[in-house]
Write a structure and sequence with these properties.
Elements lengths: L4 E2 L3 E5 L2 H5 L7 E6 L18 H15 E10 L5 H10 L3 E9 L10 H10 L2 H13 L4 H8 L19 H7 L8 H12 L11 H11 L16 H5 L11 E8 L6 H8 L22 E2 L2 H10 L24 E2 L2 E2 L6 H11 L5 E4 L6 H8 L3 E6 L5 H9 L14
Helix pairs in contact: 2-3, 13-14
EC number: 2.1.1.-
Protein name: Methyltransferase
Organism: Schaalia turicensis ACS-279-V-Col4
Length: 416
Amino acid sequence: MTPYYKDDLITLHHGDCLEVLATLPEASVDAIVTDPPYALGFMGKTWDKQPDFQDWCRMWAVECLRVLKPGGHMLAFGGTRTWHRLACGVEDAGFELRDQIAWLYANGVPKSLDVAKAIDKESNNSRARKLEFTEWMRSTGITAREINEATGTRTGNRYLSSKQQPAIPTEAIFDKLRPILPKVPARIEKLVTERSSGKFSAFARRTDRKVVKRNIDNQATDFDLRVVNAGTPVLDEAKRWQGWGTALKPAFEPCIVARKPLVGTVADNVLAYGTGAININATRVNGTDGRWPPNLTIDGHVAADLDVTTPGGRSRFFPTFRFEVRAPTRERPKVNGVAHPTVKPLALMRWLVRLVTQPGGTVLDPFAGSGTTLEAAVLEGFNAIGIEREETYLPLIMQRLRRIGDVPFNFEGGTE
């Protein structure tokens, strides 16, 4: 397979990792450090949707196992809701699960459904009820012009619409229509009564006071606008569930630590292949004389909180990496308006590749994304192989690789 890009240190392939991995030689890489899709459908991206996630993980992990040298490590990030499937797939492929690294951060963004709002919206946006009303209105043969003339409003189209903004009038407006309508069925009478009572919260929508002031002159007779504070439940059922949601704020991501089975003892394997162990001294907190690398890393916010609440500044026990919801411009390539939505901190990825790769070794990332792992590997003195399926992300990787030479590494353990 012809690489998309290749130089003395980096090889980048464009294609599905299952297909590209099959072309790589057996036992040809020292370590795999990657951030695969989490199967959460993040931002609606198709690459983050795998129907049978565990089996898919097993399939690419089988190929990763083949191309790794005996004793080679794989570090793979996972989502908190799906990492167990990742772990099972990796284990089923033949890897040994050695540990898990937790990457903690303080400023994740919660993505929870507001239950009270959902209850209001469910009733408010009862489109089926509105369409039932407008369908009956159309069946009478009445026109929007006739409705406007009878009611003194300009909203006749909404009482006939089958698509855009169908509506049910208040009882006051509907009473003005009765003289030009046939006998009204009981089900339609009920819809009008319920609409006027505010039973359906869409009929009592949250409205900003300025919006009411702008619209009141020409539509107040049609819409009974009520002003409530943003976020205030309207229905009694919604009020009961105010403050309830469906998800916690994300504050950590797990990273699977897996190893290909050894050939002989650890010592035998290290001597034969240069793999099978982790580089403790190169990843100590605060340098080569620092503390033993833990299976937990933190960001600056967590570090600050630890130092406030514990004597002696306990953040000194943990590697600290900056985390931002949106990575800084320098670490977030953007080409023609396209940027990758899930970019890991460069310093974190440098620490990880250094942890599991022998000097001069080769790091593989089968899900290259914007190329953070590739950049990290090269900056640490390793060779790198990347695979990326999405064509739109290839220019991001190339932009990142072109500027590798001018990035200083400023990891200082407890502070960065």
